[in-house]
Design a protein that fits this description.
Layout lengths: L4 E5 L3 H13 L3 E5 L2 H11 L3 E5 L7 H9 L9 E5 L4 H9 L4 E4 L4 H16 L9 E4 L2 E4 L4 E4 L2 E3 L3 H12 L4 E3 H8 L8 H15 L9 E4 L3 E4 L2
Helix pairs in contact: 4-8, 6-7, 6-8
Length: 232
Amino acid sequence: MLKQRILVVDDDKEIVRLMNSYLEQAGYEVLAAYSGETALHTIRRERPDLVLLDLMLPERDGLEITRLLRSDPYLAQTPVIMLTARVSDTDKIVGLEIGADDYITKPYNPREVLARVRACLRVHSSLGEGLQSKVLRTGGIELDTGMHRVLVDGQEVKLTATEFDILQVLLEQTGYVLERCELIRRALGGEFLGVKRTLDSHIRNLRQKIETDPKHPRYIQTVYGVGYRLQG
């Protein structure tokens, strides 16, 4: 069985060395890059299964790299976990809004990073594996699990892998209220239960992509104090 490959991108070589050690011990193959430009070339050439991406990098920063990945149809589904010293909520929200799957601030425990990597890979690798392809529809939304494609009013909408997972869970429970913890557990994995703000950012991104008026959503409705509901 081929090992899953993780690209660690950081200009601090000691951090790369430390993460390399933890990830290899966990059974992953590790690639390394110390600048944004090198990271971009490596992603395009090697197609890693996940990218651990520092925000502050020489040549191209982590935000620019993430934007470029999400705009490339061949790389848009690559999971990205940002690692950064920026701790403000605004910085985290920006990272998630441009398409990062998760955001971890420095200093961090390598074991926590490993847990997030496992959760992210488990969620994304489960798409289509051993499952019969199905098409979910409600209102003007159509989601094809096999093609990993979403149409809204007949127009294809590009979603990140995490956004796709969240929308799929909501579509499978159309009309029912999903508590935030339940939605996180089913769409993101149990290790994400402590980061509810991450879910809110992904929901905001989804509304921007599938709603005609994101400020007055037709589909993804907030049930205050409880969670979210997809209305057909």
